[in-house]
Each structure stands twice: as C-alpha cells, then as structure tokens.
Design brief:
The complex is a heterodimer. Chain A is mostly helical. Chain A has 10 helices and no strands. Chain A has 2 domains: about 5-105, Alpha-helical ferredoxin (Fumarate Reductase Iron-sulfur Protein, Chain B, domain 2, Orthogonal Bundle), CATH 1.10.1060.10; about 110-155, no CATH class. In chain A, about 50% of the residues lie in helices and about 0% in strands. Chain A is elongated and about 60 Å long. The relative contact order of chain A is 0.13. The mean pLDDT of chain A is about 95. In chain B, helix 5 (about 85-95) packs across helix 17, helix 9 (about 190-195) crosses helix 10 (about 200-205) and helix 14 (about 270-285) packs across helix 16. By secondary structure, chain B is of the alpha/beta class. The radius of gyration of chain B is 21 Å and the shape is globular. A 4-stranded parallel β-sheet of chain B has the order 2-1-3-4, with helices on both faces. A 4-stranded parallel β-sheet of chain B has the order 6-5-7-8, sandwiched between helices. Chain B has a domain at about 205-359: Rossmann fold (3-Layer(aba) Sandwich), CATH 3.40.50. Chain B has 18 helices and 8 strands. Classes of the chains: A mainly alpha, B alpha/beta. At the A-B interface, helix 3, helix 6, helix 7, helix 8 and helix 9 of A face helix 4, helix 5, helix 6 and helix 14 of B.
C-alpha cells in the first residue's frame, strides 16, 4: 500500500459518517477487530475488512473509502454488530458509509436499477398477468401492483 | 441450602428436572387462561405430576374451527413470484393450525433493497407498509427474513424515537398515511412458536416424518439483530427452527456451518463472493446424511437452490442438496400431500425425503 499523507486526509469525514443516520456509533470503535473475526465476507474476500474500513474512515481517508468497490460487499448479516463490545452497530455504519458514497455519486449501477423498479412497480419483481396466472393455478390470490406510494415517496 | 426449587416453592412432588425443558414454558407468554388455550394445555401436561391430574393434551389433530389469531400476510417481492411453494405451504399450514392470514392489497416491497442507497428511504417505505397494517389494526406476518428485519427494525426504531417518527410521518402524509403504532411484526415461524406452540404442533402431527434427517438453516435476519429477537431465539444458540423440525418427527442434523450467512446480501454486488459463502454450507451438507436443507427465507433460497448448479460447477464437485421450506415439511407431517404443498416447484427434488414420507 502506498504512503498515506496525513495532510491530504479529511478529519471531518468521521463526523460526516456520525451525522448520517445509522453512522453514529463510529466514534466508539477502538479497533478490537471482533467484527472482522465475525465477518463471513472477510473470510472469502480479504479486501472487505470491517475494522480496516472503520480505521480508514476515522483517519479521514474519505476518497479511498467512498470510491472503493469493497464497501459494497457487506452482506448485512449483522454478525459484527452482535460481537461488538462498543455497540458501534457496524452494519448500520456500513449502510451510512454507502449512503454517503451515493451522495458523492459513487454507486454501482445495479443498485439504482433496483430503486427505479420500486418507483415503477412498488416491487422488485413484476407481478403481471403471467405471474398471476401461475398463482391462480396453484390456488393463490392475485396480486395487483400499487406503485403510486413508492413513486411519491422515493 | 437443601431441597432446591421444589422445597422453596412448597411443591409436594418434584419432577426429576427442576428446570423446565429447553424451549417450553418460560420462553413465551401464557395468553388467555382458557382451558383450550394450547399453552394452558402444555402447562397442565408439564405439571401433571404436581397437579395429580391427567395431562389434557388433545389427541389427534387440533381443532381448526377455532381461530387462534389473525395476521396480515406480508409477502414482499420474491415469495409471491419465485417461491409459490413456500407461500402455498405457509397458507395451508396456517389454516390447519388456526392462524388466519389475511391479505392486504396495497402491500409492496418492504424497502430493504434500497437501504444501501438511502437508509432513510428504506425506513419510510417500511413505515408506509406498517401504516397500512396500523389502519387495519392487525399485526403483520412475514415469510422472508429480510422483510422481517426491515419491518421489525422500522417499527422498533419509530416506536422508540418520537422525533424520527414525526419526520417519517411528515413524508407519509404526502401519500395520506400515518404510522401511530406500535405494529407488531413477526415471522411465520415466530407465530408458530409463540401462538401455536411447538407442543400443540406435535399433537397435531398425524404423519411423523420418522427416518427423515433435515438440516435447519435459520438465515441471518431471523436471529439478528438480537434486540429484535429477545425472548424468541438467540443468535448464539439458535433453537426454534430446530425444535419446530423435531416436533414433526424428523431428526435435526447438527452441523458445523449451521450459523453461516447464505451470502444473498451480496449477490447483486458480487456473484463470486456470494457463491463462495453459500458453497461452504452446500459442500458440508452434500457430504452429510441430511435428506434436505430447511429454509425460512426466499433470499437464502436464491443462494442455496437457485445458485446450487453454478456453485457445484465452479467447485468442480458433485453437490446435490435438496432444498425445502419449513411449512412444506410441516404440511407433510400434518398429513397434507406433497402435491398440494407445491413440491413440484422445488427445483432440486427432495426425492428421497418424499419416498420415505409418502410410500
């Protein structure tokens, strides 16, 4: 890893994370690494290391964190949250960091697609005539899509 | 201190176990003290030695005319399109056991998919669904772990944060809705455990699944965050799904990777990482003597059933693990046929299991 110049870092980044809904717990972290030990993603992909991500955020490595692809690898299993001795609620912190990345326009294409689907249908998967026929055949009630609220709220 | 609990309580007889068996009385509230409340029946049977009365467990199937409770069925996005077998089995078993599941026409997505984009949006979408249930005054029953986590967490957050609730309601106002709360959200498994009770289910079983070995997969959002599952189950020592499988007569497989995450949460971001997670469990179960893996979440199904072929190919291994939903095997034990329980839609056929049960 290349040298990090502290002067280039942004110490207010952690405050930004703490202000984001869900990110409040980041200040309490003292780097015990219980989260990393509990993380199932870290065992298969070493790039996704919860403790490392928090350290980077606390140091102010805003660019490296927000532009990375590894922050999107959290599976939201809550394993880290269960073992954290400081109640950091890291799963929620990860969502907060991802939300900030979205605000800075660093978002994988697939996700915005899902948001559009919700606005369009109020669901991820279409329930059209074909799907309703399949449902009726097996004795299930038909479903009508109600996207109006989703379109207004999102 | 001699005598122990029995002497202190002044009881005349003392059962050999002074603590209630794992999973019985202390874990759920009693409810109304009427003689046909299944939990009163359990109390009576458990303390029958003390009360010197014969246990009042009903023989044969539970009466289904009596309505235990009512809930609004929240299907979410995936179940009603991709997991009709789960939905059918849940509806049939609920009906048999006295749970009335009503539909709400306007329910949609719980909001979970957009949490990475904007967690507040997810809260508002979840609150919108909760507000719909609030208007009906009935609690919500979910089939998907992710919907469970999202809706229950939203209810919990809003119920404990009046300021945040006011903010969210301001947004809901634009669509003519309001969340007053509290609205209760429970997974179907939780209804079975808390409202019907596993002893009552055992009494209702007419075709015990003896000689069937099943591997329970709880999934992450069934057990965590633990604040939402206090009094129900524990992420460290999970037991409700295992015990609910046991009362069907099947044997529960204890296996090393039971608490593993399915990887469903990252499938959209990286198929490779997600498959690597699911692979570990599939490999262990493929080598075990389990006839099938039991799921309670459609996300987990996408990984373990939907991706199984791809994972097997990538691993270069012969992995074959049939995947079933809990209500399907519950239905079999309650005497229903595999046909009506949607087994035709299970993509990795649990042929051996059905041979044992239906021959």
């Amino acid at each position: 890893m290349s040298r990090i110049k502290l002067n280039d870092l942004d110490p207010s980044f952690k405050d930004r994370v703490a202000r984001q809904p869900g990110g409040e717990g980041i200040r309490a972290c003292y780097g015990c690494k219980a989260c990393t030990a509990a993380c199932p993603i870290e065992t298969v992909d070493k790039r996704y290391d919860p403790r490392k991500i928090i350290r980077m955020a606390l140091l102010g490595m805003q660019k490296e964190v927000l532009e990375s692809d590894f922050i999107w690898l959290c599976s939201s299993c809550y394993g880290c949250q269960e073992v954290c001795p400081q109640n950091v609620k890291f799963t929620e912190v990860m969502f907060a960091i991802k939300n900030i990345a979205v605000q800075e326009a660093c978002v994988p294409a697939g996700l915005t697609g899902q948001r559009n689907l919700l606005k369009e249908r109020g669901r991820l998967y279409e329930v059209g005539d074909f799907e309703n026929e399949k449902r009726e055949k097996i004795g299930l009630p038909r479903i009508k899509e109600h996207p109006e609220d989703y379109d207004a709220l999102l | 201190m001699t005598g122990g609990i029995s002497e202190q309580a002044g009881w005349k007889a003392c059962p050999t176990k002074t603590a209630p068996a794992h999973g019985t009385l202390n874990t759920y509230p009693l409810g109304e003290l009427s003689p046909d409340n299944p939990r009163v029946i359990v109390y009576r049977s458990f303390f029958s030695a003390l009360l010197n009365k014969a246990p009042a467990l009903p023989k044969g199937p539970l009466q289904t005319e009596r309505n235990l409770m009512e809930a609004l069925l929240f299907l979410g996005c995936t179940v009603p399109v991709r997991n009709l077998n789960y939905e059918v089995a849940a509806r049939l078993t609920a009906q048999k056991l006295g749970i009335t599941l009503r539909d709400h026409e306007a329910f949609g997505c719980c909001g979970f998919p957009v949490k990475s984009l904007n967690a507040r949006d997810t809260l508002v979408i979840a609150a919108r669904n909760l507000a719909l249930a609030d208007k009906e005054g009935i609690e919500i029953c979910v089939l998907c772990n992710a919907c469970m986590g999202t809706l229950a967490e939203a209810a919990h957050t809003l119920d404990h944060n009046p300021e945040l609730k006011a903010d969210v309601n301001k947004r809901l106002e634009t669509v003519g809705l309001k969340y007053e709360g509290p609205v209760r959200v429970r997974h179907y498994m939780r209804l079975l455990w808390e409202e019907v009770g596993h002893e009552a289910i055992r009494a209702a079983v007419t075709r015990p699944l003896s000689d069937v070995v099943l591997a329970p997969h709880y999934g992450c959002h069934y057990l965590k965050p633990s604040e939402l599952t206090v009094g129900f189950d524990s992420p460290d020592v999970p037991r409700t799904l295992s015990e609910l499988i046991t009362v069907t007569g099947a044997q529960v497989l204890e296996y090393a990777t039971m608490k593993d995450c399915c990887g469903g949460g990252v499938l959209g971001m990286s198929e490779e990482v997600a498959n690597a997670l699911a692979r570990v469990k599939l490999e262990e179960l493929s080598r075990s003597n389990a006839h099938a893996m039991v799921l309670v979440c459609p996300f987990c199904n996408v990984m373990y059933e939907g991706q199984q072929k791809k994972i097997a190919k990538a691993a270069g291994a012969d992995i074959k693990v049939p995947v079933v939903y809990y209500p399907q095997i519950l239905g079999l034990a309650l005497g229903m046929s595999s046909e009506e329980l949607g087994f035709k839609l299970n993509r990795i056929k649990p042929a051996d299991l059905l041979k044992i049960v239906e021959s």
